[in-house]
Amino acid sequence: GLGVVGTPTTTTQSVPQSSTLIPNTATTNEDTDTTITTAQPNINFGADGSSALQFTLPNPGSASGNVYSVSDVSGHGFSLTTTGGSADFYGFTGGATDNPSVPAGTTVGCIDNGSENGYGCAVLYGDFARQGATVNFNSTFEIGGYSLSLGGDVTLPAAPGSTECLQMSDTGSITTTGSTCGGSTTITLAPGLGDSQTSFNGTSTAQTVTNSSTLYPQLASVTETSSYTLNARCSSDILCDTATLVLSDAASLTFKAPNPAGTLAPYQIADAAGDPFTVTTVSGTATFYGCVSGSPTSFTVPANYSIQLSDQGSTNNDYYCVEQPVTPAAPAGLTHFDLGYISGVNPNGAVIVAYIPTTLTVTSIYGIPTAASGTSGTDIDVYEAPSGTACSSGTKMDSTSFNADGTANTQQSMGVNTNTITASDYLCFVTSGTWTSSTGVGTITVWAHP
Prior knowledge:
The protein contains no helices and 42 strands. The two termini are 89 Å apart.
């Protein structure tokens, strides 16, 4: 592998200490059986005979560590042996042999294992230029005292452009799958993803899709009127309640979360009845932290609140939790304007507030009759008007007229038609119906914030 000129020789060269050494290797084609000497590890021999040739390597131990290589270039293959004829070659299909036959289109590199009395060979079978060729990677290498083995046959696609896939077994065998790469692949969906917008995933069996399907995000709400263990409605291997908003719709309910298992599974429970509910776990021993003081094994969620749980794992045996109100807190600066009416008087044109100093956003309008008017069709609407404009020519603020003949002491939501009160405008009543003999008494309130 080293010489004083760029052309390798078949004999050992010697140089004085002032010489320049040049790495060199060469390929030589042989058309007859050939004996390789210990002086030729830097030559790649080509088997170029009219039939299969035989190459004889030095007996192992003659030059430990030397590597000899032979390649078939004629399409007839070749065989290997040693000078003594009894040393084994390793790395070939079928195990050790003292006279391996090498198929056409193959390159073999063998290392002299010295006292092991054999050659370790790296064998690349197969002609990559031919479609449908079989390639074998049966070789064993030892690196730093560790043995690395590659094994198995690979049948290459039978035609250019084939999309047939390859697969490897746990023993290292590589084969074709017999199917097209990029073809249909079935994927099992976790909760939170479904194959449709109307069928919830996970309550019976997990839904599956192929790589040509459409995935739909899912979050279902389920109402519970009795105590419930999360995932009880799901099939055994699916945590379907991780994609469910569980609604507590009765008093004194208890919800049990699965024992922590490190799944990081999220769960959501919300009050829908105006009543507190209790949260614990199946075992009753796992702890909660984040939304509670200390680390209790159960806790009560207040009325009109929701809870989010996250499975933190069996190591700490706990859940992290977050509480938040179901109804958002009132906006900062929320204020209200009220005006009542009495029996025998038509409140048409009555002013609720004479002057609004700043622009406000209306959040809600409510009314309540403490006594019904006794006359059908006696309705009231809230209007906004600028100074100098008649109330009835202003802008209607509510979306539903207040019924003064409605059920006594029962609130009526009037909705919001226009949610902005312009600075310097005033608010007033516009009525309809006959109020002459009205016995009604009530009040209307407008809620707004800056």
